Fold this sequence. Notes:
The structure holds two protein chains of two kinds. Chain A contains eleven helices and no strands. Chain A has helices spanning 2-17, 22-38, 42-72, 87-90, 110-113, 119-128, 132-145, 149-159, 165-182, 185-197, 203-215. In chain A, 17% of the residues are buried. By secondary structure, chain B is mainly alpha-helical. Helix content of chain B is 68%, strand content 0%. Chain B contains nine helices and no strands. Chain B has helices at residues 3-9, 18-34, 40-54, 64-89, 108-125, 129-140, 145-152, 156-175, 182-185. The relative contact order of chain B is 0.10.
Amino acid sequence: VNDDARRLKLAQHAWLDAMPSEAEVALGARRIELRLGARPTRRRIHRGWLLVVLGVLLGGTALAYVASRAAHRPPPGEPGQALLPSAKAMAPSLPPVASSENFDRPALPEESQTSLPRARPVQRAARTAPSADTTSWKDVDDALSAHDSARAEAALERLSQSPDVAVRAKAELGRAQLAAARGDCPAAARIVAKLAETPDVPEQLLTRGRELVRRCR
Amino acid sequence: MSESTIERTGVLAPTTDAPGELLVLLYRQMRKLAGPRPDLEDLVQAAAERALRAWPRYEGRAQLSTWSYGVAYRTYLDHERWYRRWRRRFSSVEEPAERELADGPDGEAAAIEVARARSLHRALGLLPAPKRAVVVLHDLEGLDLGEVAAIVGANERTVRSRLRDARHRLLTLLKSDPLFDPEVST
């Protein structure tokens, strides 16, 4: 038993002598730390996946939004739905009220501050200024409401010069309707016949025109 | 925080570099449990990953060193089980287990100490991992039985039984080694 105890004592001494130094332990721990840092942790992997999923969702939503906007955009030249030109495009045709000199003044006395809002009518005018097509359709509506067939005819004449086939066809059909309303059935029939010869006219409009001529008395 | 502070107090201030301190502790404890071996750093890394995952759940009920010893012990045990299965299927070359002990101070006495340490580690390497851990923690590291029981997750009677068996086997192995002959050594 004594020998065993002494052997164990020797083993304890040998054990303590073989312990690594502080520097060795610190170096080893540092190497492990670097290894752990270089390896992507689960949390990092999860975060990466989350970002990918979020990106896909956002991209899909944006695409769906753009697609729905494109699907609901009305065809150009539709009555009441005509596209307004941008303010920039309209600006040259407007009076230069909002010149830059109004804004370049270093000091703003009280009376000059009142001049600042002068720029607003320009912007409002630019924003609300309708295009020629819209004005014409509105003119047609206004003229018909006012029972002014001459003005309506003139507006329809202008619309029949439009580059858009559909707008032109609708304007011609409008003229035929005016003629039929006046009781001028031959004129209405001429207009419809001319319309039928025009290529790319929507069939629906032609049907309506023929129906109009058939019922004209 | 030095080894003595962290092992004495068992407290790791939350404001300090907790993972860094934990790594130092784990490295030292794994080195004691598994001994010098080529895959020591792999073992420490596995233990560190396990400890860092469990770190938020550490409530301070056990001393930090006991808790981290437990993590190191379980990692070591898992590795040994896996390694035993692996060795059963594939032939392995002899590992230079005491490679780290090769360098040491010059002189005959120092050479004897290094050789004795090698013999001790070789003998410990022949013990099964749970028994090796118990004898290392109690007889060589000086931890009391309650602490060893907490680390290995067994009750004290089991630990005492393992210790008795492990000590017996270790002393049997050392008896045949002249470096551990008490007459010669003294």
